Amino acid sequence: MLKLGLLESRSEHWHGTAGGHDGEAMDFRQKIAVVTGASSGIGRVTAITLAQAGATVIATARRESLLQEVSTACRQHTPDSCHISGDLGDKAFAQHLVDETVERYGRIDILVNNAAVPMHRSLYEIAVDEAEEVMRINFLSCLWTSFAAIPHMLLQGEGGEEGGVIVNVSSFVATVAPTHETIYAASKGAMNSFSRGLWNDLAGSGVHCVLVIPGPIDTPIWDKFEDDNAYSGKLYPPQMVADEIVAAIGKRRFEVTVPRRNPSLVTARVLATLVPSLIRKGVARMNPVSKKLVDDARDRAKAGQRMGLGKKP
Ligand SMILES: NC(=O)c1ccc[n+]([C@@H]2O[C@H](COP(=O)([O-])OP(=O)(O)OC[C@H]3O[C@@H](n4cnc5c(N)ncnc54)[C@H](OP(=O)(O)O)[C@@H]3O)[C@@H](O)[C@H]2O)c1
After folding, report:
1. CA proximity to 167, closest of 146, 183, 184, 186
2. 212, 245 in Cβ contact below 8 A?
3. Which terminus of the chain, N or C, has less C-beta within 10 A?
4. What's the pLDDT score for residue 4?
5. Is the preceding omega at residue 151 within 30 degrees of 0, hence cis?
6. Given the DSSP bridges, would you call strands 110-113 and 82-85 parallel, antiparallel or unpaired?
7. How far apart are CA 3 and CA 23, in angstroms?
8. Ligand 1 neighbours by CB, cut-off 6 Å
9. Longest CA pairwise span in the chain (Å)
10. Helix (H, G, I), strand (E, B) or coil at 258
11. The pTM is what?
């Protein structure tokens, strides 16, 4: 069984297999892998890392030119890799992505549900339609692609073969739900429960689900925040997440937090489970809700205005 480290240290030893469960090596060279949110950040690096491992990658996101770069990079390793661009907030596209993959390649072995948008704004200023959009892109897209992929994976898994692996990229934010991250945290919390449910519902089917929980990772997502975010600590390289994803697929892991055994994340997780009030106090101290925000919202309530009308209702 290969021990996986960061790509740089591993690449020369990497021959397209990762340690499988029960000590067997998983051969990525025969695998067809769909990676969503592959135009940037974690998805981009994961797509290329999977291709380096030998998988044929179908990269997807909205930005065609960035996807083209990614699929070109993947094709250097697996010449049949391609990209399909579209909006994963649209159920028809999410289903089409899987259908098109199976039509072109005859199967789907790995589905990495990674696409997401951030939403860092006071709950009082989020339009209800925006909140729904975050849920569609961040959570429902993963449900739609999974529903589309599972039947194919079940057929592939008939007779005890490996059916397939669904990887859901969540966020540590779901554990602590920082101020002004409620909708984003809710989308990731839904993903967590969906993934943990799949572990049970898919038992015995040959289809496996991996839940990946990144901490703070250095990607363009941080540039998409509308205001100064409260976090100013260390950011970890996206390659770290990609390596963990590839290892988790190979080893049929259930859940992996990245970076692993990080003292801050471990402490936050333990406190969130055992003493949630401490987490609430810490979050409130780190990023308090201003009195003005509450007063303005109360004034609008007095005027009979609905919440969820948007930034400047
Ligand atoms: N970076 C972190 O600190 C961190 C921490 C915890 C969890 N995560 C999670 O890690 C995953 C990857 O995030 P990242 O940090 O790599 O962010 P990123 O660089 O902003 O990448 C997000 C990806 O999602 C795609 N995407 C967004 N909306 C889409 C839509 N409607 N349809 C199709 N694709 C869409 C984007 O592509 P287009 O814009 O081209 O569509 C992009 O490829 C996300 O699930 C995120 O929640 C990140």
Report:
1. 146
2. yes
3. N
4. 29
5. no
6. unpaired
7. 12
8. 37-43, 61-63, 66, 87-89, 114-117, 137, 169, 171-172, 214, 216-217, 219-221, 224
9. 66
10. strand
11. 0.92
Neighbour-count burial of 292, counting CB atoms closer than 10 A to its CB (0-12 exposed, 13-18 middle, 19+ buried): exposed
CA 41 / ligand 1 centre spacing (Å): 7
Among 140-144, 223-227, 253-257, whose mean pLDDT is lowest?
223-227
Is 105 annotated in the active site?
A: no
Q: What is the mean pLDDT of the chain?
A: 90
Domains of the chain, start order: 7-302 (3.40.50.720)
Q: Of the listed 105, 184, 231, 236, which one is catalytic?
A: 184
**Which tens digit of pLDDT belongs to each residue from 72-113?**
999 999 999 999 999 999 999 999 999 999 999 999 999 999
Higher pLDDT, 280 or 226: 280
The ligand 1 atom nearest the CA atom of 85 = 33
Residue owning tokens 């801050």: 264
Atom number in ligand 1 closest to CA 169: 45
Instruction: Give the span between the Cα atoms of 304 and 169, in whole angstroms.
Output: 40
